[in-house]
Amino acid sequence: MLLFGARCSNVPRNCLGATGLRYFNVKSTPRLGFPCAYSEEETRKILNKLNEEDVEQLYKYNISKFRLKKIEGWRKKFGTFMSLDQVLELDGFGITVLRKFYDSIVKNPEDVEAAAQKVVKKDVKFTTPIFPVNIIPKIQSCVSLYVGLDYVTWARFKLSKDEPTVLTGWNSFQINDRKLHVSELIRNVTQINQLIPEADVYVVENPAVAQAVAMGSATQTNINVQKSQLIAMIMLMLSNRVPDSSEIVPNVYFFKQYASARLFGIYVGNERVSADGVVRSLMERQIGPNEESVENVQSKVVIPSGLKVVYEENDNAEREFLGQSMLLGLSFLRLCVFKCEDSLKIFRR
């Protein structure tokens, strides 16, 4: 509650802290377990930072840009945070996340910087098997696959030194039945293998463990198993494409689950949301070779007009799968091949 002037005189001093005409509740809430964690002085410091600093300033603390946007939106709509636990009303904030954020504010700047340096050294594993650094200069093309229950989609990228990456292929294959016999699966996979273009490396998102979502759900179990079988068969066929003389071995990689969704900001709560908005944004932001530094240019993507038409001509469901396959490939390239620092920072926090 916002309190002003004389009305504050009856409020115990250990419950409120003032900044100008604003009064904050600095009495810690048992819901978060903060009474033993933060003193009144520390609570005032947290609230002042939370309310006064802009998003860029807050980003130096232990919090993601996605959550900072939530804080920024709340402040624009409602104004000032009056207590520590009020942030829990925002999507994406739980007790653990909030405690880490507040702890990083309470620490001295030297401690925050030292912790940040330790985090930067953290080696995040994005692929299985681990993607070897020595083959990076040899990669000139990449195909990323997104496997769903109804579609298998793929995107092919051409890599050129000192130039933006070009999307050269974008296609899909529809799975007509979610309960296929193994023989039908093999027939479908054989067709898919013939359609997927050649590339130096192939990437698919690491599949979730095949299990039923509810006890006794035999149908769902069968669907999950079929998806895992489909991924395994496709990647096995693609791995056999490697010629004996190839220096890129292995050529098949399983990418960290949900990493592409996190990188492009479409992972909300515990769910992946639609990629359509991000894809359309990438279509609009085309870039020429000399518009940015060489280090950044290669991580950009050029989408030819013909492939934009392919995307638009499909229905919503198929567009979603196409979009996910493209974002998967771009994420793999930015994190594992180009090693873009801005992208890596998201996973080091």
From TrEMBL:
<dbReference type="GO" id="GO:0042645">
    <property type="term" value="C:mitochondrial nucleoid"/>
</dbReference>
<dbReference type="InterPro" id="IPR039150">
    <property type="entry name" value="TEFM"/>
</dbReference>
<dbReference type="GO" id="GO:0006392">
    <property type="term" value="P:transcription elongation by mitochondrial RNA polymerase"/>
</dbReference>
<protein>
    <submittedName>
        <fullName>AAEL008584-PA</fullName>
    </submittedName>
</protein>
<dbReference type="GO" id="GO:0030337">
    <property type="term" value="F:DNA polymerase processivity factor activity"/>
</dbReference>
